[in-house]
Every structure is written in C-alpha cells, then in structure tokens.
Amino acid sequence: MAENARDHRDSQGQGGSEYHGVPANALPLTASEDRQWATLAHFGGILGCVPSLLIYLIFRDRGPFTAQESKEALNFSLPPTIAAVVANILVFVPVIGNVFAVIATLIWIGLTCFSVAAGIHVNKGQPHRYPYNLRWIK
C-alpha cells in the first residue's frame, strides 16, 4: 500500500496532475443565459436575499443584464430579509411572539409577490425597477 502511494506521488511530480482546474476567466453569458440568470435573481427573492447575492457575486462580470438585475433584486430583498429574520427571532418572546409570526409571514408574502412579478417582467427581456427600493449596493 505504501508503494502505491509512492507511485501515485511520483506520477504527480512529473508534471501530470490528475486534477484540472477551472479557467480563471469564464466566458461571457449568451443573451438567453443573461436573461435566464437575471430572471432567477428576481425569483430567488422568494428565498430571501441569498440567491440574488450569489448570482450577483458569480455572474456580475459575465453579463450586463444579470449584473443590473441581480443588483436590483439584492437591493430590494435585503431589507425585508433582515426584517423577517429579526421578526422570526422575536417570535420566541412570550406574549407578543404571535404578532411577530404574523409580521414575518406578511413580509414573506409581500417579498414573494414582488419577486415573482419582477421575475416575469425580466423574463420578457425588460429591465425592472422596484417602486420602493433603498439601492444600498451601487
């Protein structure tokens, strides 16, 4: 067994690696991929701000429409996500916890409705601007 490990180490040292990395510069998105990821950034608002944040960080340099729309979706979904997390923590407070459960549910319903409407709009290839958006990320 030790001999097999030594042979494996020697074969790697001679310039041949069994693992190949991903190229450092990824290809730009096609027009349909750009629209697809922009749409998914808005639909991801159903789950909070995490999907739009990931899409923004991964694809912002690969497609201009995805960069614009994922930033818009992130700016819109970040404050309600923070408010919903706080409300969900306050659910455990005795006596008034039920009120915060209702508030957290209403936040999620509102975020879902706005995100789905924006996703449908963006899927048609048109940019979407939320009417009430803080736009923290420039």
Question: What can you tell me about this protein's structure?
Answer:
- By secondary structure, the protein is mainly α.
- It has helices spanning 2-13, 31-43, 50-59, 64-90, 97-123.
- Helix 2 (31-43) runs antiparallel to helix 3, helix 3 (50-59) runs antiparallel to helix 4 (64-90) and helix 4 (64-90) runs antiparallel to helix 5 (97-123).
- The model has no long low-confidence stretch (mean pLDDT 85).
Q: What is the CA-based Rg, rounded? A: 22 Å
In percent terms, what proportion of residues is strand?
A: under 5%
Largest β sheet strand count, sense and barrel closure? none
- From the helix content, strand content and strand pairing, which structural class follows? mainly alpha
Gap from first CA to last CA:
57 Å
Q: What's the count of strands? A: 0
Q: Mean pLDDT, as a whole number? A: 85
Molecular shape: elongated
Instruction: Pick out the low-confidence regions.
Output: none
Helix content range: 55-70%
Query: Helical element count?
Result: 5
Order of helices and strands: HHHHH
List the helices and strands and how they pair.
Elements: H1 2-13, H2 31-43, H3 50-59, H4 64-90, H5 97-123
Helix pairs in contact: 2-3, 2-4, 2-5, 3-4, 4-5
Features:
64% helix; 138 residues; single chain; mainly alpha
Briefly characterize the structure:
With 138 residues, the protein is an all-alpha fold. The protein contains five helices and no strands. The longest helix has 27 residues, at 64-90.
